[in-house]
Amino acid sequence: MLSIARQFNSRFEIFRSIKKRVQFWVIVCSITLLILLAAQSQVVSQYTNTIKMARPTWETGWFQAEVVKQLLEEIGYEVNEPQTLNNQDFYLGAAQGEVDFWINGWFPLDRSFWQNEEISNNLTTVGTQVKQGAIEGYLIDKKTADKFNIKTIADLEKPEIAEIFDRDNNGKADLIGCNVDWGCAEIIEHHLKAYDLQETVEQVQGNYVDLMRETVTRYQKDKPILFYTWTPNWTLGTFVPKKDVIWLEVPFSSLPEGKKQLANNTKIPDVKGCNSEPCNLGFPPNNIQAVANREFLRANPSIKKLLELVQIPLEDINEQNAVLVSRNYKLEAIQIYASQWIQNNRDLVDLWLAAANDVKLANNRENRASASQVTPVIDKQIITPNLKVVTKRFEPFVNYKNNEYTGFSIDLWDAIARQMNTKYDLYGVDSIEALLQEVESKAADVAIAGITITSQREETVDFSHPYYESGLQILVNNGNKVLSQTMWERIFSVFFRPQLYYGIAIFILILLVAAHVIWLVERKHNPEFPSNYVQGIWESFWWAAVTVTTVGYGDKTPKKIAGKLFGLFWMCAGYFIFAYFTATVTTSFTLEEMQAVINSPQDLPGKQVGTIAGTTAVEYLKEQNIESIQYDTKEEAYLALHDREVDAVVYDAPALQYYASHQGKNKAKVVGSPFKLQNYGIALSIKSPYRKSINSALLTLIEDGIYKQIEEKWFGTQSQSVIR
């Protein structure tokens, strides 16, 4: 028994030893796995659809942040609730990847952070949400300014003036300033020193919104107020410049050491409520721009595109902030008002989202191409795959919304596929070049959108029978005035028109004929018309001119009966001759005005013309020697027209017509008839085995009337297509 017990104990000890070792390695493996998973999740979080967004400590920037957050969610991203960070924490956190971006960078004010190498290497600005609209400065109530003739902040150096704004009875004016962690706090302190105000003025710091609410209360009680503010800000909705408050100028420009190079930019024109023009506010104007982690943007090019395009008018931001401050900037209120702004500007917003979606599709295509390089080849004899169909957003032929494709071309292809009794997989790309490249490389079997059949494209791909006849057309802004010419340029250009000089030449010729007639009749007996030819003709020319223009000075009059009769005739003829000259000049101006309107391709030379890269419109404009600005997407071209960067956009007629009747309704219009007629077809690879079946199915749909039903669904009964 003792031996058995010993053996049992020995084996039990061995078992315990093995168990401990197993437990040890299980723990080690578990920890290792957790570390790997954590590391993987950290990497994935940076490149997946979950966005770590930030917003500033000043509440007036929260509305814009919420607008962008909701737009990102519309294109399929999950966005965490923005973290509220001060400038220093954001810039360091974004550089280290703890947050991805914010849209509240103020430049050049925030350039001081770029002196940190880690920040400058890892961060970049994107787009401009508010251009040169962010101004800063000091204001006082107008009543006090008028009463004591206060015009600049240097007036506060006088103790008796400073005492007016003393709120805590310490003998100094209380200037409501910036939060401690804001960049403007440093500039205010610098100003107090530079303008010798340290003995009479002090900056009051705390929660800016609370301090300004107290300031509003003081104003309502008819007490003097002195405060710093900026735009966009609700304060300038509550206090109206020139009516309630005035801007205080600085006596001279002066900025802290790191910003001295900006001192020449502090004089700003057209500042309402300032006594001078331009107004020296002491602060340079700022652009409000998004700031993002470079790696984050590389991983999310569609977000980069969206941030490049988003612009929110300063007036809208001020208006929204005036409402939000009364609701204490509650999250629910910010979300509601941001959503309302998006809906009120849906036409413009949809252009931004469409361009961002195009970039997203292009990125997906690149990812698919990378994945295909490591995907094993499948034996086609064993598995018959679905047809791979590639498309591109091209309203109303191909619409893309909520990750779904619809439109005339999509419905038509679906009917063709049913007729062929085949299944297909549909995916999108962002450009015509990518569309054709997918087919040419045989990455896709079929491409359908609104692809124009051209001889050049026939060299690399095959096409089906045409299924829609279209052409190019011109899109202009409502009003349709050429934007590239100023009023003075138009006036001066009239003087270079040949019609004007033809009229003047004919008028002078008629005057010379009349001068010779009156000279020949009067020269021998009338000293007012000297017999010397040169002098006589000059005096006669003078008489003819003043008479025909009905000025009739009377300094020269004919004496002979023949001369008087000719004079009478000449006076009567003057009404018609001078009317002709006036009409010629007027016509020159009228023609110039008409040429400032675009109605056809003949009006395009010399104008700023936009189009879309890689399209037949580019080829046409080159053939006509018309310079063009090429944009990557039609949405960017529409935005350029909206922002008056171009006078017209030339592109496929159906796309322009759709835009003019939807997003661009009442803002843009299509002019003239379609030109450079062209046919749309389905693109396939050279010698594609599907071409015959697709053509047969297409003809069957036309003959059976199904094509007509699809056409009327998307274009109505007045479609311009002649495919029958």
How is this structure best described in words?
The protein is α/β, with parallel strands linked by helices and 724 residues long. The chain has five domains: 1-42; 50-131 and 289-344, D-Maltodextrin-Binding Protein, domain 2; 136-284, D-Maltodextrin-Binding Protein, domain 2 (3-Layer(aba) Sandwich); 387-482 and 596-724, Periplasmic binding protein-like II (D-Maltodextrin-Binding Protein, domain 2), CATH 3.40.190; 488-584, Helix Hairpins, CATH 1.10.287.70. Helix content is 47%, strand content 18%. The chain is built from 26 helices and 25 strands. The strands form eight sheets. Strands 15, 18, 19, 20, 21, 22, 23, 24 and 25 form a nine-stranded mixed beta sheet that branches. Strand 22 (609-612), helix 22 and strand 23 (628-631) form a beta-alpha-beta unit. The longest helix has 46 residues, at 2-47.
**Could you give me the name of the CATH homologous superfamily of the largest domain?**
Periplasmic binding protein-like II
Tally of helical runs: 26
- The first-level CATH class name of the largest domain: Alpha Beta
How many strands, what sense, and barrel or not for the largest sheet? 9 strands, mixed
CATH topology descriptor of the largest domain: D-Maltodextrin-Binding Protein, domain 2
| CATH architecture term of the largest domain | 3-Layer(aba) Sandwich
Query: Taking all residues together, what is the mean pLDDT?
Result: 82
